[in-house]
TrEMBL record:
Keywords: Cytoplasm, Methyltransferase, rRNA processing, S-adenosyl-L-methionine, Transferase. GO terms for biological process: methylation; rRNA processing. The keyword Transferase applies. The lineage of its organism: Bacteria, Pseudomonadati, Pseudomonadota, Betaproteobacteria, Burkholderiales. GO terms for molecular function: methyltransferase activity. Residues 76-233 form the Tetrapyrrole methylase domain. This is Uroporphyrin-III C/tetrapyrrole (Corrin/Porphyrin) methyltransferase.
Length: 261
């Protein structure tokens, strides 16, 4: 009598960075052929939003035929409460048991974990799924694709040997200014680059707050629309930004902000 099947493999499938943008980037320009081929062979998925996942699979299908028609793909969504808070537990983060979502993996099926943009579980939910897969003894394989934080860091000219991603800053103006000054002090004292993001429609408010709160000599980088045709990365001192009078990043463009010495 044979025993239970060995667990399948959990593939971390990166998505293009054009989610919510006016235009789409050609997949072949931002994702390797091997990543697209592997994704096309999967039929079981865990995602943030099923509609977005199907739209992504449709784009993949245009290049590599899916192993099963779109209507027959098995797609499960992460709980809504983890979308903003994250799902790795700890203070201010949701803590969930993702074991049930991985039932197909335990049955021997390979599965894909995908977010709406970039690498799942990096500045996006999904760590609970990866953690549960490791607990099952399953193989976890990250596929190659765009990671906005590293692209922004590399193009900023700031310290790439010592850096931290701090997520979203507080929405309350006073708390946000205090947090900015804390991050600035840390960056100036240790040389550690501080990376953070914001919901696109709040880009302008965050930009103005940064220019008001930070010291003139602090370097501030803005990486907008990465991998898109209109992508732009600029890094200047706060004093230079103020003198330039540059407009804030657009409210429909995803942006990675970074500050450092």
């Amino acid at each position: 009598m044979s025993g239970p099947p060995s667990p399948g493999t959990l593939y971390l499938v990166p998505a293009p960075l054009d989610f919510g943008c006016d235009g789409e980037t050609a997949l072949a320009e931002v994702l390797p052929e091997g990543t697209l081929r592997r994704a096309a062979r999967l039929t079981h998925w865990i995602c943030e939003n099923a509609k977005s996942c199907r739209a992504y699979l449709k784009r993949i299908d245009a290049l590599h035929a899916l192993a099963a028609p779109l209507q027959q793909q098995h797609i499960a969504e992460l709980p809504r409460e983890v979308h903003k808070k994250g799902d790795h537990g700890g203070k201010d983060h949701a803590s969930i048991d993702a074991t049930a979502l991985l039932a197909p993996l335990l049955a021997g099926h390979d599965m894909g974990l995908v977010s709406e943009a970039g690498m799942p579980a990096v500045a996006d939910p999904g760590s609970s799924v990866v953690r549960a897969a490791h607990g099952m003894g399953a193989r976890v394989v990250p596929l190659v694709g765009p990671v906005s934080l590293l692209l922004a860091l590399a193009a900023s000219g700031l310290n790439g040997q010592n850096f931290a991603f701090v997520g979203y800053l507080p929405q309350d103006a006073a708390e946000r200014a205090q947090r900015m000054r804390q991050l600035e002090a840390l960056a100036l004292k240790t040389g550690q680059t501080q990376l953070f993001i914001e919901t696109p429609y709040r880009n302008a408010a965050l930009w103005q707050a940064l220019l008001q709160a930070l010291q003139p000599g602090t370097r501030l980088a803005v990486a907008a629309g990465l991998t898109l045709p209109q992508a732009e990365v600029q890094c200047r001192s706060v004093q230079q930004w103020r003198a330039l009078g540059a407009p804030p990043p657009g409210k429909h463009v995803p942006v990675v902000f970074a500050l450092g010495a």
